Amino acid sequence: MFYFDPMYLIFAVPGLILALMASFYTKSTFAKYSQVGASTGLSGAMAAKRMLQYAGIYDVKIEEVSGFMSDHYDPTTKTLRLSPDVFKGKSLSSMGVACHEAGHAIQHARGYAPLKLRTMMVPMTNICSTMSYFIIFLGFVMSKELILVGAILFSVAVLFSIITLPVEWDASARAKEMLVSAGIVTPNEARMSGEVLNAAFLTYVAAAVSAILTLLYYLLRSGVFGGRDE
């Protein structure tokens, strides 16, 4: 028989609230500084290119990709993909996001260990995460032992989300520093761009907290913490 477990709300709701708050704060902060142009007049793509060249990196492609906040760096092809608003935009928000992604390219070029570990974990994380939900579902129907197996698989995704935190924080730190040193923005403009990056980082914190709370719930229901026997 299937039923709703009220205990799940205790673990799910805090993470959900934090995620919604982080998302709202990120979007509102991006929107706020998307109305403020940088004194240099550079677009996000131009700013990222200048930052990479300042770091001595010339083999990273910069491409436009569809979607809102779909910006990312692909280490497998050395490609920086920026959303239209960031690629073409000349605002402090666009520059901050573009240079954050350029920060990932610099991490890759410098052999930043957490990024290397996160990249290696991607295939395993995708497989374990997908399998975990299926096995946990069977566990609720059949036995606690299967829930525990699913929780162990899900823990890989939790570890991935935790490793992501220093990777994202370091990329933003590099961007904040080089925005000024590479002459892309003034110190005051860098502070405002930094607010966008700080807001975006909160979304990764929220994801990690949510993943940890979900794992704790699965462990509780598996009986590791003395969960009930329903």
Compact description:
With 230 residues, the protein is mainly alpha-helical. It has helices at residues 7-33, 44-54, 84-88, 92-110, 113-141, 144-181, 187-222; strands at residues 61-64, 72-74, 79-82.
Describe the 3D structure:
This protein is mostly helical. It has one domain (7-222). It contains 7 helices and 3 strands, in the order ααβββααααα. A hairpin with a 4-residue loop joins strand 2 and strand 3 (79-82). It is elongated, with a radius of gyration of 20 Å.
- The helix/strand class is mainly alpha
State the order of secondary-structure elements, H for helix, E for strand. Answer: HHEEEHHHHH
Number of helices: 7
> How many β-strand runs?
3
- Number of discrete domains: 1
* Computed CA radius of gyration, to the nearest angstrom: 20 Å
First CA to last CA: what distance?
Answer: 10 Å
State the helical fraction.
over 70%
Biggest β-sheet: strands ordered side by side in the sheet: 1-3-2
Beta content comes to under 5%
Mean pLDDT: 90
**Sheet with the most strands, sense and barrel status:** 3 strands, mixed
Runs with pLDDT <50, length 5+? none
Apparent shape: elongated
Using brief descriptors, characterize the structure shown.
230 residues, mainly alpha, three-stranded mixed sheet, 3 strands
Chart the SSEs and their pairings.
Layout: H1 7-33, H2 44-54, E1 61-64, E2 72-74, E3 79-82, H3 84-88, H4 92-110, H5 113-141, H6 144-181, H7 187-222
Parallel strand pairs: 1-3
Antiparallel strand pairs: 2-3
Helix pairs in contact: 1-7, 2-4, 4-6, 4-7, 5-6, 6-7
